[in-house]
Amino acid sequence: MIVQNIKKIIDRPQNKNRLYIRNLVKEEIQNYILNFVYNDSVFQNLIFTGGTCLRKLYGLDRLSEDLDFDYNFNFSIDNFALKVKNYFYSQLTYQKVSTKVSGNKQTVFIKLPLFKELNVYQDRTPEDVFVRCDFSKQISKEYGLNTGMITAGTFKVIVEAYDLETLFANKITAFLRRSFYKGKFQKLPFKGRDVYDLFWFLQISSKSGYHLKPNNKRLLSLIKERSMDQIKQDVKRKIALVDPKYVYKDVLPLVESGQFLNQFLEIFNKSIVSQIDMVM
């Protein structure tokens, strides 16, 4: 079942960008994992978060490479790794999957040699497909939840997720505090997808007359020793320093249209700086 579904994705005539195809394949695998998680009596208590949550539950128009979950119960990552592998074995009859738990016990890497099986990219050695599941213990009591239905491929799944206000606060925190450099020449730590998502949040908020705002209490609990006005000014200062070429490199594998991405790069700085005043 998995192999046939992946082949259909790869064979779509409009799929030309290899990196985008790879992430479409990852999304299909994510669908199976989400079906496993939210039909398990223990793991259904995991709180869905991150970019895939924004895409599946709230309509974010980009792909996401990973699955992110928070937990507030006695969670065993080793048990998760074992049970998700058994799910692929028994429920999906796919025997070639393997899992690995990171040394810090925060990530499970799920590996599937699908490109090798399908003999994809004959001009070079096919790589295995990895999907990572990241788990974090809740560090703030300030959050809102939303129980909702998502479509995950052929599955309909009820998930427990953060509400948009909480995810908005999480995204601002990630943009300001994430320590990430793409390549040795990037001087400012950020991920291009955080810039893209922040822009998306502000567009969604504008359609509601800016009623959608980040959860202020959560922001202040995550970014300590800063007032809301200071956090807002931090966003403005950092966004003004963002080099568009690094946004492009990070986001291109996640969106279908490179033309749209180029248009986005021309406006994101001014748009975010002007709109952030409306929500903070």
Features:
280 residues, single chain, Nuclear Transport Factor 2, Chain: A, two-stranded antiparallel sheet, 15% strand, 7 strands, 2 domains, alpha+beta, 49% helix, 5-stranded mixed sheet
Structural class: alpha+beta
* Biggest sheet: strand arrangement: 1-2-5-4-3
Provide the CATH topology of the largest domain.
Nuclear Transport Factor 2, Chain: A
The amount of beta strand, in percent, is: 15-25%
Estimate the helix proportion, in percent. 40-55%
> How many β-strands, per DSSP?
7
Low-confidence runs of at least 5 consecutive residues: none
Q: How far do the termini sit from each other? A: 47 Å
Q: How many domain modules?
A: 2
What's the main sheet like?
5 strands, mixed
Radius of gyration: 19 Å
Q: Compute the number of helices.
A: 11
CATH class of the largest domain: Alpha Beta
Chain-averaged pLDDT:
92
SSE order? HHEHEHEEHEEEHHHHHH
Classified in CATH, the superfamily of the largest domain is JHP933, nucleotidyltransferase-like core domain
- What is the correct CATH architecture of the largest domain? Roll
